[in-house]
Write a structure and sequence with these properties.
By secondary structure, the chain is of the alpha/beta class. It has one domain: Spore Coat Polysaccharide Biosynthesis Protein SpsA, Chain A (Alpha-Beta Complex). The protein is built from ten helices and ten strands. Strands 1, 2, 3, 4, 5, 6, 7, 8, 9 and 10 form a ten-stranded mixed beta sheet that branches. The longest helix has 17 residues.
Length: 277
């Protein structure tokens, strides 16, 4: 049903757990595509032994290049971008399938709802600690409790796991490599979806994954994504998240364009800021 693309960078214990959870907890059969950055930790040999589809670069190419390369060999109509430090919970794909069927359009961007061990002031996340390492992971309790937490559908789906139709993956050109290694690339991709006509940015409350939180991104030298977003689109990321996708608000239907007067005001404000920086 889905092509699930997973960039991974010498993170073999986590990507093993991620793929195992997809195989064990999915209701449907999916294509799993890894992009293996380096892979000298045994990831490359493991992927071959498991019969997984994969692309590879000899060094860490960053998120944007990785997902585009993996997306290039996706065989299914819907592409899911997932982090390698995630564990999918039972029924995660059933909830997505129901949303796809009900959408009535291919112009959507859905996200599963993350369960994370620590609170980072994110209203779109369920906070519950089931471990931060492979050794401390409490899989038994997660499986027993993951679908018991109340959570509504929410606006502002931009971060993994995200799902879009492959048609829109190609229309938008995938993730923008000028934002490599990837800071703000998720908001940039969402803005490209918006420019392509998407007005459904919906986080699915009943589709749940556990996220161990940034086991690879902590190792990279980050790009200045906020500044790049500002220079590219003429508005701040905060403006896009607040006034376009309404991130964190309870989902109440298809989004409308923000007032033109607000856009002009925010573009002027961004222009003045850009002159300063």
């Amino acid at each position: 049903m889905l092509s699930i693309i997973i960039p991974t960078w010498n993170n073999l214990p986590f990507v093993k757990l991620c793929v195992e959870s997809i195989r064990k907890n999915s209701a449907y059969a999916h294509q799993v595509v890894l992009h293996i950055n380096d892979g000298s930790d045994g990831t490359l040999e493991w992927a071959k032994a498991e019969g997984l589809d994969f692309t590879q670069t000899p060094d860490n190419a960053g998120i944007c290049v990785a997902v585009n390369m993996a997306g290039g060999i996706a065989t299914q109509d819907y592409i899911v971008y997932m982090n390698d430090d995630m564990y999918v919970c039972p029924q995660w794909d059933v909830a997505l399938a129901e949303e796809i069927k009900a959408a009535g359009t291919d112009a959507f961007m859905f996200s599963s709802t993350m369960i994370e061990p620590t609170f980072h002031n994110n209203p779109c996340v369920i906070v519950k600690d089931y471990g931060t390492t492979i050794e401390t992971f409490n899989e038994k309790d997660l499986l027993a409790e993951c679908n018991t937490f109340p959570m509504h559908d929410w606006y502002g789906s931009t971060w993994p796991p995200t799902i879009v139709h492959k048609k829109y993956w190609h229309i938008t050109g995938g993730y923008s490599i000028e934002l490599s290694p990837g800071v703000s690339s998720d908001d940039d991709f969402a803005m490209k979806m918006w420019m392509a006509g998407c007005r459904i940015f919906k986080g699915i409350g009943n589709s749940r994954v556990y996220h161990f939180q940034s086991k690879s991104t902590l190792r990279v030298v980050k790009n200045d994504g906020r500044k790049q977003f500002l220079m590219k689109w003429g508005i701040n990321q905060s403006t896009f998240n607040k006034h376009f996708t309404h991130r964190g608000e309870k989902y109440a239907g298809v989004l409308s364009d923000p007032p033109e007067s607000l856009i002009k005001r925010e573009k002027l404000r961004a222009w003045l800021k850009r002159k300063i920086v």
